[in-house]
Structures are given as structure tokens and as C-alpha cells.
């Protein structure tokens, strides 16, 4: 148990789950999408939908999308800041007993829609549970690499060799294939940091379309 589990995180807003967690969901969504964006849809579910406005969940998520962390005092003005930056956002509110009580789904809508869903689990902690239709589960306590690559034999081995040669251990691997597009989505959970030169090598590897590094957030 960490000190934040006892005292709670340092944050702007009244609720660690509805405010601090919401900031982190927005911030993680921004990092996962990893492209410029000007148009987002934000879907809030259940408790997030019912009490979100009172707890500042809406402003918190927009703040995270703007790159703010949970102790940033600009979060209370995130709507105005987003407007000045040309970010258009629209909220949708849902009740669904089959979904987590503190669920937010963010859809980046500039080009082909791209979604990231996260849940707030208390104490400012979150889990990302979906990336563009792929079911995932990670909390931000490790570093991750997201891959999009051509669905051909040997790609996992090729990526693993590049990481292994740099003594970067793969703690967990999740793969989802889209047979129609012949594209694979892969999530690599790492035990250590993957430096820029390794990303450059991975991005230059044949049949790899995109590599996104998601560095761990300071959760505790």
C-alpha cells in the first residue's frame, strides 16, 4: 500500500475517482492516439454521467486531453482553453448496468473514428480497457508499446529480438488481428524504458506501420 492509498492523490477537484481519474483517462487517451486532433466525442457512463458535472469529470477529461495532469490548476478552465486551441468536444451521457460505473469512452473524430475507453477505479487510478475496438487492460504502472503492423508471420519474433538485444524484457503481450484489413494490433507491456533509438529501429522495420510508446504515469 502506498501513501496515496491512505491520503489520496494530489489533485484539482473534489473526487479522486470522478476528477483525478478522469484527468488520467483523458491524458492516456491523448498519448494512445498520438496524433493531432481537433474534434472529439466524450461518452460518459453511469456514475460518471450522473454526477460527472458536479465533480468536474467533464472538465477533467478535457484537461487530460489537453495534456494537463491531475494537479494542474488550469483544469477548472479547460473548456475555455480548449476553445482557444480550436478543440471541439461534445459530451454524451449513458446509463448501462452492464458497464463499469465510472466509464469514459473518447472518440477522436477528425479522420476515421478512433476510440479509447477507460475506467476510474478509485484513488486517482485508472484502467484502459479498450483501444479502437480492441479489448485491453492496463493501468499505467508500466511502459507500453502499441504496434500496428502487417499480418505476416514472424513479426512478434522480429519485435522481440529488437527489444531483447537491448535487454528490454516483455512482461506481457496481447495481439488482436483484423483479417479483413490484414493488420495486427499488438500491445507490449515492458519491464523497462524503451529509448528513442529503439523506437526509431522498430519504426524502420519492414511491415510495421506504427509504433506508439506510452510511458508510465506517476500513479503513486
Can you describe what's shown?
This protein is an alpha+beta fold and 220 residues long. It folds into two domains: 3-138, 60s Ribosomal Protein L30, Chain: A (2-Layer Sandwich); 143-214, ACT domain (Alpha-Beta Plaits), CATH 3.30.70.260. The chain is built from seven helices and ten strands. Strands 2-1-3-4-5-6 form a six-stranded mixed β-sheet. The protein has a four-stranded antiparallel β-sheet with strand order 8-9-7-10, with helices on both faces. The radius of gyration is 18 Å and the shape is globular. The N and C termini lie close together (9 Å). Residues 1-15 have low confidence and may be disordered.
Question: What are its keywords?
Answer:
60s Ribosomal Protein L30, Chain: A, 10 strands, globular, 220 residues, 4-stranded antiparallel sheet, alpha+beta, 7 helices, 6-stranded mixed sheet, 34% strand, 2 domains
Uncertain ranges: 1-15
Question: Shape from CA axes?
Answer: globular
Class of the largest domain, according to the CATH hierarchy?
Alpha Beta
| β-strand number | 10
The structure class reads alpha+beta
Taking the alpha carbons of the first and last residues, their distance comes to: 9 Å
Strand content: 25-35%
Provide the spatial order of strands within the biggest beta sheet.
Answer: 2-1-3-4-5-6
Element order, helices and strands?
HHEHHHEEEEEEHEEHE
Quaternary: single chain
CATH superfamily of the largest domain: D-3-phosphoglycerate dehydrogenase, domain 3
What would CATH call the architecture of the largest domain?
2-Layer Sandwich
Please compute the radius of gyration using only Cα atoms. 18 Å
Helix percent reads: 25-40%
CATH topology of the largest domain: 60s Ribosomal Protein L30, Chain: A
Amino acid at each position: 500500500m502506498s501513501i496515496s492509498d491512505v491520503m489520496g492523490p494530489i489533485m484539482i477537484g473534489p473526487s479522486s475517482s470522478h476528477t483525478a481519474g478522469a484527468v488520467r483517462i483523458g491524458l492516456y487517451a491523448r498519448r494512445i492516439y498520438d496524433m493531432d486532433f481537433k474534434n472529439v466525442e466524450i461518452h460518459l457512463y453511469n456514475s460518471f454521467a450522473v454526477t460527472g458535472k458536479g465533480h468536474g469529470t467533464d472538465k477533467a477529461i478535457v484537461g487530460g486531453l489537453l495534456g494537463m495532469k491531475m494537479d494542474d490548476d488550469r483544469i477548472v478552465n479547460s473548456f475555455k482553453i480548449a476553445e482557444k486551441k480550436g478543440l471541439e468536444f461534445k459530451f454524451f451521457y449513458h446509463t448501462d448496468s452492464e458497464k463499469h460505473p465510472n466509464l469514459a469512452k473518447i472518440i477522436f473524430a477528425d479522420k476515421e473514428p478512433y476510440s479509447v475507453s477507460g475506467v476510474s477505479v478509485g484513488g486517482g487510478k485508472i484502467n484502459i480497457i479498450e483501444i479502437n475496438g480492441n479489448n485491453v487492460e492496463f493501468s499505467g504502472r508500466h511502459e507500453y508499446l502499441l504496434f500496428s503492423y502487417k499480418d505476416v508471420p514472424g513479426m512478434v519474433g522480429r519485435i522481440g529480438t529488437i527489444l531483447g538485444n537491448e535487454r528490454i524484457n516483455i512482461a506481457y503481450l496481447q495481439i488482436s488481428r483484423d483479417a479483413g484489413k490484414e493488420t495486427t494490433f499488438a500491445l507490449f507491456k515492458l519491464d523497462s524504458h524503451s529509448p528513442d533509438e529503439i523506437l526509431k529501429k522498430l519504426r524502420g522495420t519492414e511491415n510495421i506501420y506504427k509504433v506508439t510508446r506510452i510511458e508510465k504515469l506517476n500513479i503513486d
